[in-house]
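The freezer alarm interrupted the setup, so I double-checked each line after restarting. Inputs confirmed:
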Amino acid sequence: MSEWKTICAVSDIPVLGSRRVKRPAGPEVALFRTSDDTVFALLDRCPHKGGPLSQGIVFGDKVACPLHNWTIALDSGLAQAPDEGCTAKFSVRVEAGQVLLCEAELANIGLEFEPLKAGPCTRSC
Ligand code: FES
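Predicted 3D structure, all chains:
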């Protein structure tokens, strides 16, 4: 039986926007809110080259990745044709205006990927 963790209120997520959920390991989880207040959760990692989907533009039930504009379906994580690929999705419950995520999924999905890092490049060219 799954345990569910309260993350935030639906109203804490901007309409047609997102909010990131940090985890002890792995990339963050991106919560998305559509114009009809449906909430979806995806790994914050584009299936193309790992772009931060939480920084993308939400339209309808999709998000456009900010890096190269792939379109990802929020309900499945699938890239839309002609692109191919899938990012992991997380189960979402909304109860009394609160968003809940499955603790087992938070602890296990997408841990094979490194968390996204922001900041100046440290590679020598
Ligand atoms: S990394 Fe998302 S479209 Fe390229």
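Quick read of the result. Residues 63 and 72 are 5 Å apart (CA to CA).
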